[in-house]
Amino acid sequence: MRRLRQAATIVALCIGAAVGYGIVHDQVTARVCLEYFTVGHGWETDLTSPTLIGLRWGVLATWWVGLLLGLPLAAACQAGPLPPVAPRDLLRPLGRLLLVLAVLAVAAGVAGYISARLGWVWLLPPVAERVASERHARFLAALWSHTASYTGGFLGGNVLLGWAWRQRRLRQMARKAAPMPGRGGVGAA
To answer: Residue 166 falls within a domain, yes or no?
Structure first.
């Protein structure tokens, strides 16, 4: 029962981390280019507030990413006979992943903006026709930023899965190598 509770905590932690990151990310990109959300997502709304749009999309576009990471990560951390990885042990690696994603998002956004300003990339119809031409570079900055976050999150999530599995194997080896009580400090074979 304890492992099941810890697995549920890991899933909730991943959803919370994804949604938190998504809200912060979308607060920034909604201010870079509101049209990325209102036109680019094909779900036009009467909302005009970057804050409200960033909150809406920060939740809608990321909760499922957290779930898709949380379920296999919970299994990698808790399932089977290996020593488990507790939810608290994931805080630093998950925090590092979010920091790396933020850096990637900023770098990709800047690269997208510069590339558009230099004419190396451009918006295609029908989006290009629905976004003012002076906003195209900003739209592409937001697009590249989001693409980098999703791609980095997918890759980083897989790294996190590998990390969890490795931690469990290392803990198992450490347990086997630890001296057994009542045997005068002789390690178990």
So the answer is: yes
187 token code pair: 């390690």
Residue type, 62: T
Distance CA(33)–CA(137), nearest Å, equals 9
Contact criterion met (CB below 8 Å) for 82 and 3: no
Query: What is the count of structural domains for the chain?
Result: 1
pLDDT tens per residue across span 101-130: 999 999 999 999 999 999 999 999 999 999
| Domain around 49 | 2-176
pLDDT tens digits along 15-72: 999 999 999 999 999 999 999 998 988 766 677 899 999 999 999 999 999 999 999 9
Q: Is residue 6 domain-resident?
A: yes
- Distance between CA atoms of residues 169 and 151, nearest Å: 28
Contacts from 12-15 at CB under 8 Å and sequence distance 24+? 12/70, 13/70, 13/87, 13/90, 13/91, 13/94, 14/66, 14/67, 14/69, 14/70, 14/73, 14/94, 15/63, 15/66, 15/67, 15/70
86 C-beta neighbours (distance < 10 Å), count: 13
